[in-house]
Each structure stands twice: as C-alpha cells, then as structure tokens.
Amino acid sequence: MNAILVSLLVLATLVTLCNTQCFIIPNQNSGSNECKDLDGITHPLDSQWKTENCEECSCSQNGINCCSLIAVPVDYDTEKCKKVFNKETCSYKVVERDNPENPCAVSQWVL
Fold this sequence. Notes:
Elements: H1 2-17, E1 22-26, E2 34-36, E3 42-44, E4 48-50, E5 55-60, E6 63-68, E7 72-75, E8 81-86, E9 91-96, E10 108-110
Antiparallel strand pairs: 1-6, 2-3, 4-5, 5-6, 7-10, 8-9
C-alpha cells in the first residue's frame, strides 16, 4: 500500500513539473494519406520530423501534432546569470553575465 502511495506521489510531482508546449494542426482532408503543415509542406501519414523552430512533429489521420523540444531554465540567479539560446542544438545554457565562460547552476528546467 505504501509503495502505491509513493508511486502516485512521484507521478503527481512529475506531471506538475511537465509543462510541454504542444499544438495540433487539424487535417483538412479527412481521407488523405498526408498532412499539410503551416508552411504548406506535405508529410506522409505516420511520419515524424523536427522543425527549424525546435519542435518535433508527427502526422496522423487527425492532423499534425507538434511539441517543443526546448527545455527552458526557470530556477537560477537571474541577477548574476543569463540564459543563452543555441538554435543549432535547440537548447539553453545559463552563464554568468559578467563572465559568459562560467556556467551557472540551474535548479529547474521546464519543457
């Protein structure tokens, strides 16, 4: 019984910390074997891809589902440090404002 309660507490904590940013583009042609994204590019049914905006997308009968791949630092010393985004790796690093060569500690990241 205690193991179940502990498992539920851990699950509730993980769900609370997870704030994934996702969106859906409904499929315009319900019988189609492809999806059209916002740029007008068509993708085969059941395909997956990554966008230049750091999103992972997939095509299904319902449409396109995309979720951000970017983990954003939210708990760090904002006066001493700043976040720097690298579009190539779709990631942030947190560094000292006065000496960007020195990384800063981050206690929490949010998707």
